[in-house]
Amino acid sequence: MNKSEFVSKIAEASDLTKVAAEKTLNSVLDVISTALANEESVNLIGFGSFSVTQRAARIGRNPQTGKEMKIAEKKVVKFKVGKKLKDSVCIKVKAKGGCGCGCKTAKPMPKKK
């Protein structure tokens, strides 16, 4: 689903115009972006939490040449999924025999050999 389809779904579900729904979505995304830029975490109970962490500097390898190279430390955004969202995704997989994610499904997924 792309942004315009997402805006259409929001407008339909909340009886807003598409313009108002897009403005609302942009406001929400701006608030989340601003909070993360200020190194604050954003917790949306049931959906998940966004946070900023520091990734340490490390030695990597150039895949084309195989030569070692230094990768600088940097800040990255992490998302941890909430229980309600995780369970809503797992329900779809339960009918296929279990997902193996730790939720309470009927059967676990078969292990790879």
| Backbone CA Rg | 20 Å
Helix content: 25-40%
> What class do helices, strands and sheet pairing give?
alpha+beta
Strand order of the largest sheet: 1-2-5
Sequence of secondary-structure elements? HHEEEEEH
Shape: extended
**Biggest sheet layout:** 3 strands, antiparallel
- Beta-strand content: 15-25%
Annotation, overall tally of beta strands = 5
Tally of individual helices: 3
The CA-CA distance between the termini, in Å, is 34 Å
Unreliable sequence segments: none
Mean pLDDT: 87
Structure description:
- The protein is 39% helix and 24% strand.
- It has three helices and five strands, in the order ααβββββα.
- It has helices at 3-14, 18-37, 83-94; strands at 42-44, 48-55, 58-61, 68-71, 74-81.
- The strands form two sheets. Strands 1-2-5 form a three-stranded antiparallel β-sheet.
- The relative contact order is 0.10.
